[in-house]
Amino acid sequence: MKILLTGANGYIGMRLLPALLEEGHELYCCVRDKNRLPLDPETSKRVKVVEVDFLNDVDMEGFPTDIDVAYYLIHSMSVSTKDFDELEAKSAENFNTYMSNTSVQQVVYLSGIVNEESLSKHLASRKKVEEILYEGDFKLTVLRAGIVVGSGSSSFEIIRDLCEKLPLMIAPKWLKTRIQPIAIRDVISFLSGVLLKKECYNDSFDIGGPDILTYKQMLQQYAKVRKLRLWIISVPVMSPRLSSYWLYFVTSTTYKLAVNLVDSMRHEVVASDNRLQEILDIQPITYMEAIEKAFIKIEQNLVISSWKDSLVAGRFSNLKGYIQVPKYGCLKDKKKKKIEETDRVLNNVWAIGGSRGWYYGNWLWKIRGFLDQMVGGVGLRRGRTHANKINAGDALDFWRVIYADREERRLLLFAEMKLPGEAWLEFCIDEENVLHQTATFRPKGLWGRLYWYAMLPFHYFIFEGMINNIAKR
User: Fold this and answer.
1) What pLDDT was estimated at residue 11?
2) What is the pTM of this model?
3) Average pLDDT value for residue range 121-130
4) Of 358, 351, 363, which Cα lies nearest the Cα of 468?
5) Which residue, 141, 143, 150, 113, is CA-closest to 15?
6) Which residue has the higher pLDDT, 249 or 45?
7) What is the C-alpha separation between 342 and 428, in angstroms, rounded?
8) Cα 166 to chain center, whole Å?
9) Does 327-472 carry CATH code 3.30.70?
């Protein structure tokens, strides 16, 4: 079966992709930037990558037309607090136009559970996309899910941050809202199970796990699985803005996403029926089982995808324009060091950031991350998804991986922190086994230059110590 997978490099897409390959399907993976689809060499041979941005005008050149099924997994909730619904509607309309020029029989859309007349902007947007897709020239199957629980999912990581960091919580009243979480493995089973099933055509199905819990109970059960002490005090009044700041400063979420999440958390999200479970004979696992399985993946360093690696979890939505480091009008700090054990040094470069740190002056990096967070930046909270693997597009503390090639022995990072300019950090090892470390800053106006020169004393010690420790550790 020929399947088109949109959002292939997103959290759900990266989990669904191997499941579909295992079933023997032929895949076309739609991404805005083909360099941001981190596949191993064997998997790369089995898929065809299509570069397409559904927010742009329709261009059928190079777009596959002989497809049987398409998955619509495009969401824009983290992009903006104002117009993400307009972006999602435009994307869906363009998708319909693309599909009208193909042989697609069925489109599968992953949406959110809608069971209240008064919806959050997030859920209302998902509902609007669903209505647009129903206008397409194909059979539509809509799966409506609530909170998805799995290693790397935004909901799981937020709950994890709250429980691991705060033994005592002063929480808003929306912690009493009921929701029905579902494990990521069950979401994938439902998504793959509805393929070309005629009884699922032109219909919408709620999918959820067996537990209906409040947010407070979800936190308490997480603490129970992790054997943590947790006290939660609910207060009757906490404004949405204050709640958003509370999530933003405590968890790894962005402020834009926090605002949209808080807006949604005030609305009950419970499945209205279990028809699809009966049709596909799927028995979802419990919330606590989902948490236990998520930690098995984390402890084995087998997290396939993380919401933090999505570009919308950072400062920019498209990094193609930053892969070429500018040469003119820039300020640079260049360091180089002769090395002997090339593989060991390369391993050190590939392990930078996250729990490993930045090899010198980690307390200064933490201060810089805190200051960045205070002005609305991403800070150091995102860490990294894998301990020793890096792919283009990955989040790396307050950096974004632009280019990572071990054979070329080159790693290029772009800063997503709040800066009066643009910054790159590059590591490469040349043919003479010399490690080059280059920090490039393109200032924006006078303030940009003042910022660079004010940081020079810190740069001298930090960058010098970093290259020395990378080379010798």
Assistant:
1) 85
2) 0.72
3) 80
4) 358
5) 150
6) 45
7) 11
8) 24
9) no
